[in-house]
Amino acid sequence: MTQPPSLGRTRQIEILISGVGGRLPAVPVEPRRLAAEAERALSAEAWTYVAGSAGTEETADANRAAFERWQIVPRMLRDVSQRDLSVELFGERLPAPLLLAPIAVLGMAHRQADLAVARAAAAEGVPMIFSNQASVPMEDCARVMGEAPRWFQLYWSTSDELVASFVERAERCGCGAIVLTLDTTMMGWRARDLDIAYLPFIHGQGLAQYTSDPVFRKSLDEPVEALTGVRPPRTPASVLALLEQIYRYPGTWAEKLSGKPLAAVQRFLATYMRPSLSWDHLAWLRERTKLPILLKGILHPEDAKMAIGHGMDGIVVSNHGGRQLDGEIGALDALPGVLAAVEGKVPVLFDSGIRGGADVFKALALGATAVCLGRPYVYALAVGGERGVREVIKNVVAELDVTLGLAGLTSLAEIGPEALVERRTGSTSPRGE
Ligand code: LAC
């Protein structure tokens, strides 16, 4: 699949011609305005959960600062009239080096949640990575995607039986890869969420992969060990939370009223995190699936080497959008070290901080094979639903196309570190000149 030769210009013209008729884009093109409109569209709880990062949110700032440290040095007079953004990943040719990152609880952003994103991703040919914490079961998303590419993100819970079931379901759903997220062996210290004392999962949101799973549902017949001695105070709010759990639990009214919705939340909270996970576990997963396995959350070069040593097929350099560990290295700052350790043996993907096409260009120039877009598509979902997600995908890809051409390049293979210079105070000069 290849792009029309001037995708960036096509998108610009499409927007500008519609503007002549007084019609504006469904979602803002400018990333900060997109976030601001999403904040207006979302409930306080949803905005806090989606936009928030860990602790003082220094990591989220570091992610952006890392992009700002690199500047593009364009070349001129190079005939950039024909450009190609396509890339091959695990035997599949993608129209652009872009995937949609797995994001939990999209139901907080829009009624159609993951389904709207799945339709938008399929229409644009951009793979969607189904979230382990989705609001819609993966089977339903796969159904609306036809043959379009999709992957599955896995959290390794304390139940290996459940992990195996998720992986089998992902295979049956036609997922092209398993992305094992490693940086969430416990929930990051999310000060914003703690200040409003809100976690969507406790309200029965983001549990769709679990409540649709035969292994998980069977486990609800067994007693669940209490996590702490703390019980919610009996208030109107706690009754409302119970009603939310009942409303979101799939099944017949008999099941809904059987105590299962509360059991599902309790079982989830008891199972979800596995801090004991270690490198030794990977062989078990490797045996269970022929799909490529990518490790997401790798930032240290030694971990990258270990991943390859353990037969992993790819790496996603990511700090979970700054949501897990405060005061952590900016993800883009970690990319060169990981790439040097990987020595081109497996594809290295990147996420955390991508806001537009120029950011994608910088990550590719440093050596990433492709990138994952995160919060911007959730913001677009909140503001414009499926159409909004399509637009944000188009905008990022179009901006990448424009950036490529204006940098004097015509294909991804041509993008390399020589296109960048590290920002210095005072004058900067391109490498090699
Ligand atoms: C989060 C987890 C659940 O970032 O992925 O909220």
Briefly say what this structure is:
44% of the residues lie in helices and 10% in strands. The protein has 18 helices and 12 strands.
Can you describe what's shown?
With 433 residues, the chain is of the alpha/beta class. The chain has two domains: 30-192 and 274-422, Alpha-Beta Barrel (TIM Barrel), CATH 3.20.20.70; 200-271, no CATH class. 44% of the residues lie in helices and 10% in strands. The protein has helices at residues 7-20, 31-41, 44-51, 58-68, 113-124, 138-145, 160-172, 191-195, 208-211, 214-219, 236-248, 253-256, 260-271, 282-288, 301-309, 331-342, 357-366, 375-406, and strands at residues 70-72, 87-89, 92-94, 98-100, 128-130, 150-154, 178-181, 293-298, 314-317, 348-350, 370-373, 420-422. The strands form three sheets. The chain has an eight-stranded parallel β-sheet with strand order 4-11-10-9-8-7-6-5. A two-stranded antiparallel ribbon has the order 1-12. Helix 15 (301-309) links the parallel strand 8 and strand 9. The model is unreliable at 427-433 (pLDDT under 50). The protein binds lactic acid. Lactic acid binds at residues 104, 133, 184, 320, 323.
Overview features:
binds lactic acid, TIM Barrel, two-stranded antiparallel sheet, globular, disordered C terminus, about 425 residues, alpha/beta, eight-stranded parallel sheet, 2 domains
Task: Count all strands and give the number.
Answer: 12
Q: What's the overall geometry?
A: globular
Structural class of the secondary elements? Answer: alpha/beta
Given this structure, which CATH class of the largest domain is correct?
Answer: Alpha Beta
Low-confidence stretches: 427-433
Number of helices: 18
Q: From the alpha carbons, calculate the radius of gyration and give it in angstroms.
A: 22 Å
CATH architecture of the largest domain: Alpha-Beta Barrel
Sheet of most strands: 8 strands, parallel
Give the SSE string. HHHHEEEEHEHEHEHHHHHHHEHEHEHEHE
